[in-house]
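debug: dumping io for the single-chain case to check the tokenizer round-trip. Nothing else runs in this session.
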Amino acid sequence: MTGPRPKLSWSDLAGARAGIWGLGREGHANLRKLLALGVEPVLVDDQPAGPVDGRPVLATADGGLAALQRCDVVVKTPGLSRYRPEVVQLSEQGIPVVGGLGLWLAEADLRRVLCVTGTKGKSTTSSLTGHLITGLGYRCLVGGNIGAVPYDPDNAGVFDYWVIEVSSYQATDLPVSPPVVAVTALHPDHLDWHGGVEQYYRDKLSACSRPGAELTVANGDSTLLRERAALFGPRIEWVSEHDDPSADWMEPLGLPGRHNRRNALIARRCLAALGVPGAADTAALRAAAAGYRPLPSRLTPVGTAGGVTFVDDSLSTNVLPTLAALDAFPGRRIALIVGGQDRGIDYAPLATAVVARAAPTFVLTLPGSGPRIRARLEAAVRDAAPAGAFAGVTDCADLKAAVKAGFDWARPDGIVLLSPAAPSFGVFRDYRDRADAFARAVRAL
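debug: decoded output
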């Protein structure tokens, strides 16, 4: 894992010469926090979009790095890799390069904080954990990589608990861990940021083992996680999708798929570990589960046409969630739309699972990683013994064409599933933009 982070808190920055590096969502929260502390920071961004509230923003390559070198501390946005040469250079010069979430954790009441990480599933697990805590009658802020930035003055309030989603980027900035950390899944991702798959695993799981860590509640169905148990905290509780087979308290959540059943079980185990009253009361938990609204673009039905159901899973940006999406519809005919920005992900596991799937599956690939996915599928077909009900693969020029081709194949009662196993950047602004385009294509039918 990365080395120890300086244990600085936001309070320590009062009176400091501070720099903010990166002006995205979290960068603007960092600015508001420093202004609340009476600090007027220097602002730096790789690609400045103009002044912020009248304050100039320097380009990193055009005076920005030099300005940061004159600071006492630099608060960087998570998207800037800790392995960038400029970050290493600042650290070697004795300038702490820290993250806003780490500064907050350094002075938070960690007994009432839950950190949730994982390649996929962390957003759903965080949101449903926060929903259950609120349903049990307590004030909860759900934030971090999802929702609110916990230290942003705009989010000030009195809370009983904080549920914080932690990305692999943010994990490298943490000086401490709360006693309880949850890990939902592990799969290769963000390799360009971390510099390799094993470094990604170490960075992702470092949130479980910083000073203060006591218990990791982990996905026991993941071989990758079990193989890396040594990277966790002192104690581990494994949670499987097969645990508590008679549990029905989670039914009001309305979450499809065995992976979401496990996410709900992880959430309940974390509530118990935090000592939330009511966590052991099944009736109270079922009542608390009512009214949950699933996050968008996570197996979200967007409509039907000609008997065909269209499902938006645009947030699936690597293989693991796409496999879970297929698993959520056992026995159903699925036209699967995949492909997008190519980050070099290995698609062999996806191809093997699709070809072996018992129900008919037709794959429609999109530009970017689509041709590599098709090549993997064709290789898996050659190697399959015995083959499943794989119905073929075809390349599509764009998402609209893929929706139409999927609809034609899936009639009269199948599913067209957008679960791309790739990011959306290049063609779309983000996964939401891709989801909106999917919905427009469905409406056009």
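debug: round-trip ok. The CA atoms of residues 22 and 28 lie 9 Å apart.
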